[in-house]
Every structure is written in C-alpha cells, then in structure tokens.
Input
Amino acid sequence: MDETRARFDAEVLPHLDAAYRFARWLSRSAEDADDIVQDAVLRAFRGFGGMRGNDPKAWLLTIVKNCCSTTMAQKQRRSQVPLPEEHDPEDGEAMISDAPDPESETIRQDEKSTLERLLGRLPEEHREVLVLRELEDMDYRQIASVTHVPMGTVMSRLARARAALKASWQREIEGDSRAVR
Amino acid sequence: MQCAEALRLQAYFDGELDAPSAAAMEGHLEHCAECRDSLADLQGLRAALRSEVAHPRAPAALRDRITAALDRETAPSSAPPQTAHSGPAPPRRARSRRERERRRSFLFGAFSGAGGAAVAAVIAFMLVLTPGAVPVVDQIMNAHIRSLMPAHLIDVVSTDQHTVKPWFSGHADVSPVVANFEQQGYVLVGGRADYLDHQRAAVVVYQHGAHVINVFSWAWDGKRMPDKVTRNGYHLMFWRSGNLEYCAVSDAGWDEMSALTGLLKGLSARDPDAERS
Output
C-alpha cells in the first residue's frame, strides 16, 4: 500500500462513522447518505495532499457538507416535488430503520425516537450545528469551519436551535400527557 | 434574559470561555436563578440528545465499497502517479485559495450585522490560547489518551511515594511532588515518564473512583498556560510551582480535580525542596 493511502487510512478513515452520521442528518436519507459519503471520501483522498490544519475530522465533515449540498441541489433540479413535507413525519424512523438490530428496534419502539424525529424536523442550519455540537462533540471553531459560517453565527444558530428543539420537545411531551388523560 | 448573557452562558456550558470568564459566570450563576434554570435546560437537552438519539456506524457494505473505490484510486494501473498528481493539483490550489479568502471574510463577518456587537462581546471572553500553549495542550491530551490504553498507564506501579519519587530521578528531567492521598479519595497508583514539550516529563498517576487523573510536570519554560481547558471532554488544569509547570488531566469533574490540585499545591507549599527541575 502506498504511503499516502496508509496515512489517509490512519488519519481520515477513523472518522468514516462520523461522516456517515453527518450525511444522514443532512440528507435525511440513508440511500443518499451512502452515495454522499462515498463521494466525499474519494474527494477527500484526491485532495488529501491539500488538507489544511491538523483536524481530519472537521476536514472530512466539511467535504461531506459540500457533497451533500451538491447532491441536494441536483435532486432539486431533477424534481420539483417538495421532498421535505413528504418525508418529514417519517424522518426520525428513516434515520435508524436501515439496519434493524435489536437495539435500534427498542429505540424505535419507545419514546426515544421522539427527540430524534424532532431533531430531524429542524431546518438544516439548526440541525447541523446541533448534531455537530451535541452528537459529534465538536467545538465552535470546528463547527464554523464545517458549516462555512463565522463563529458568531455558530453561537447564535446553536442558541436558536436549542431553543427550538426544546420548545418542540416540550410541546410533544405535553401533547402526549394530554392524550393519555 | 439579555442576548449577550444567554450566549455567554451557552459558551460557558460548551466549554468555550476562558478561565476568568468561566469563573465570573460561575459567580453569576450563584445568585441568578434564571441562568441556573437555563443551564439546567442546556444540560437536560444534551443528556437527552446523547442518550436518545441513535448513533449509527457506517454500514459494512458502504465501508467495503469505499475501500474498493480507494483501492481503484491507488491501483498502479489506473493512472501513473505523476498524472494523478499533476491533474487535480491546479483546481485544488484554486479552491484552497478561495477558501482562505472565504475564511478571512468570516472573521469580518463575525463582527458585522445585527447582534454582531453582542457576539463580539462574548467572543472576547472565549478561550483564546496563546500560540505556544496549543501544542502543549494537544501533546498532553494525546499522552493522556495514550495512557488510558491497556498497559500504557504506568511504568512504575506503586502506592508508595518513596518508590515513585526516586524512580523519576532516573527516568524524567524533573522531580515533582508525589504523595498518596488515599484518605481523601485520590489513590497513588504509580508513575510514568512521557516526552512532552521537548523534555522528559514526569507523570504521576492517581485513581479517583472510576477516573484516572494524570498529573504531568515539566520544567517551566516561560510559556503562559491557561488555568483550565476542556478538550475533547477531558479537563486540563494547569498550575505552576517553583520551576515546575503542572497539568492535571482527567475526565473527572472540575471539583474533583480541584481537590487533588489543592492537595498537591499544599504539599509544594509545605516542602519547597520536594520539587526540582
């Protein structure tokens, strides 16, 4: 195996799972996520020599984000059917229904999927900062570089995203308890 | 709540404030019920997201497809290496220049627009490490994580300070304070030598409940280190005593780490001769 490939395998490929999760959250589709991630990893490999900084994870996720934008734009051009409405109610399910193992089955059964579903309904700019901060544990600087926005925007988006998710979560919980009564 | 306070509280919660601002926020939290509620909300939401949202791995089939595609890229028959490198190079350079420009404009963008002033006010309090401190923090982080791998934690296993301390004289460039604080809940488990900032640092390993706390020490070289840093979920606390720079690193909470560093500082104060570099 050549040296670049070995270095790529050691530095970038460990972040494949994070890239895959991020692609799923961005595209809200398991099939699209597969193609996006494959495309992103190949682009990453071709541009590996030009990787800046010492943060392969943020770098790979930046490429995933770019590939995802391209894919989304192509899809939109191909079809004028508004996908979000069609997919919205099922989004939370779609995120985990791909490979049903016992654990995700349980997650799907109980209340746990509520938050996942609500997170999936947030607009992309809110969804991505929350996913990167809370699920991928990235700091503001990394999130700013992945999402191509200034750090200040990351902070305000994160605040709005958290407020929006909390509000919809609360509504959901209150709605549930009313339904039970 | 005012916008600037909310953002600062959030930055505090996300571990993005520098030490003095974090301390100020902690002071503020003591007498502001509203901020305490907001902080509890932030913590609740994070805990819920981290426990209730699935964290799927890339499917094996996708992994295989990607490996196969990378193999095709690297196969000697597909394209001679020269062509492969000279081909995509110009657009790559062009792209990175564009991104550099975009990045520069982010910096200006951060301070413009509605709310820019509030955001700038918070950014001013955010953790900005001195350039020299960053590599040291990274090195300590890496050494700490490495030490948690099986069989990497300890070079000399002992709960006896009189065994651990002399061991350092032959294996590290410094001799830090060492003691077993078992009664206070910090059990000395041993010592290790680690290469840090171009010297052989002494690492004293303590066990506190389920947490491992590594206490690094090396000869102070004038670099200003932050008091507290959070990196990848690990806490790092720096302090200086005489000619030695110390750093405790662990996934334990700040309070638990402060208790240990307090004990160590007390030890240094009582016996200044115990340390040398």
About this structure: The longest helix of chain B spans residues 89-110. Chain B touches chain A through 53 residues (CB under 8 Å).
